[in-house]
Amino acid sequence: MRALVSVHDKTGLVDFARGLVDLGWELVASGGTAEALSKESIAHTTVEAVTGAKEMLGGRVKTLHPNIHGGILANLDEKSHIEDLQRSGIIPFKLVVCNLYPFADSPSIEMIDVGGPTMVRAAAKNHAFVGVVVDPNDYPTILGELHDGKNTLSNLTRKKLALKAFRHTFAYDKAISEWLQENVEASEDGKEGDDRSPAFQKVEKVNLDDRILLDLRKTNDELRYGENPHQKGARYVISGKRGWFDGATQHSGKTMSYLNFFDGEAAWRLAHEMASLSANTPVAVSIIKHANACGAAIGTDINSVYLKAMESDPVSAFGGVVAIVGEVDERITATILENPQADVLIASKFTPGAIKMFKSKRKVLRLIEASAPGPRSMEIRTFDGGFLIQEPDIVDSPIGGSWTVVTEASPDDRGWSDASLAWLVCARTTSNAIVLAKDYQVVGVGAGQQSRVLAAEIASQKAGQRAIGGAAASDAFFPFKDGLEAVANAGVKVVVQPGGSVRDAEVIERANELGLSMIFTGQRHFRH
Fold it and tell me: Cα 433 from chain centroid?
């Protein structure tokens, strides 16, 4: 029995190779794999000895040879194939162990593997006779089956291995094609990124090509169920990519649930976007319930910012997700412990003392320490027979003169600041949405209403007197002046909205009558 071994990732290689040798297998190894086996005194034959040709072109050509691929691709039920092997003195391979260069980790021309994918695909194609192993995690299972099956893998096992192998090469080719596409676009544009994106928001360029290839890898996160107990759920990542949670540390609490992840993503992204609104307000706190903000604030002192966020709507905050851009120490921990119970708390950093306090007082609280989230990317939703896919929603800002004051009165500096915060949070709130903000604090949110007037009334009711002198944001235009009047009743001085209604003139006239400053952004932000 002959096995071809050529791996870049040498995790578990030595034990696996010894196991094969103990079972009577002859190993044929290439390049670095042969060196690793030699260091451990594991018997093997080199690829060069099999091909009769030395490696060339700096290692680019070593396994591309009939003596290798004839041994992999031979149909052993075909008489002519057997005759070809005998005539050329080729011994067939029963096992091919190969994984590829880590292109996604350090993409470059030299990391584009040629011989590896060729061997993997050849073995996977001929899985009726050859077992192909691309994942070191499969080594113990393979050895166990070979031991119990007298050096033979079952047909089902070979099929499963072939399936994994083709997925392995698919992900590899996908990573290369995306890298080359980015390079081509950069060369054509002479620049990178999307120039529509404001400075505070990171956005990944999305190409709505004729064909979009997705390779998703299931993570090890254990989700008890999906949104509801009768639904199964799991978290996947795009192969070769890592999200903010993949590098996060969970210090305490139960495992994350489907909704914890869903709301956690919304909270962590919103908090970082808010913190980047101004260099003068680097601390941000967002509190998310059912994917919408029920509290949000920015500032410089983490304790006061947290209290402002919690004051927005403490009743709704119970059982929500809290995200804090900043370091959580014992002082703010004591403050958090006095407030309604959150299910998840995500922060940039926790002091050891803070972790100790949370573990002693709220053991079930999921305490997550994480780095900033990556760029927003394509948005995908299921649709019968496929998906709806769109670019991420880019939230515009007053920077660069994209906003226009359309009333006689203009906002002061604080009015612009309140409008910017209200507008950002409104864009991340389910439509129809109205958000009221004042003094770096969101004071009222009306979310997910079919009536814009009702959304305004809900936001105003939650805000009470706290909205007086602040700003209101509407994710889409006011079709009638009644919506404007509803936010005016809350006492705001500034209103920010996209504009674009056939009745804009009526709404502007009413704003002037009420003494309001009104800003048109020219861009709506429906969110469903």
Answer: 26
pLDDT at 244 over 70: yes
Work out the mean pLDDT of the chain and round it to a whole number: 88
Q: Identify whether 67 is preceded by a cis peptide bond (ω within 30 of 0).
A: no
Strand partners for 190 = none
* DSSP 8-class letter at 94: S
Neighbour order of strands in the sheet with 95-99: 45-46, 26-29, 2-7, 95-99, 131-133
* pLDDT tens profile 310-363: 999 999 999 999 999 999 999 999 999 998 889 999 999 999 999 999 999 998
Q: Which two tokens stand for residue 305?
A: 């910012």
Which stretches of 362-409 are DSSP H helices? Answer: none
Burial class (CB in 10 A: 0-12, 13-18, 19+), 302: buried
Tell me how far CA of residue 272 lies from CA of 35, 164, 281, in angstroms. Answer: 48, 38, 11
Cis geometry, peptide bond prior to residue 432 (ω within 30 degrees of 0): yes
Give the residue numbers marked as catalytic. Answer: 125, 290
Structure tokens at 399: 């920077």
pTM, full prediction:
0.73
- CB of 292 closer than 8 Å to CB of 312: no
The tokens describing 514, both together, are: 């009420």
Tell me the C-alpha distance between 225 and 223, whole Å: 5
What are the two backbone dihedrals, phi and then psi, of residue 95, each rounded to the nearest 5 degrees?
A: -150, 135
| Calpha distance 170→110 (Å, rounded) | 19
Q: What gap in Å lies between CA 397 and CA 424, rounded to an integer?
A: 8
Q: What is the pLDDT of residues 393-424, one digit of tens each?
A: 988 877 656 799 999 999 999 999 999 999 99
Which domains occur in the chain, in start order? 2-175 (3.40.50.1380), 249-369 (3.40.140.20), 404-520 (3.40.140.20)
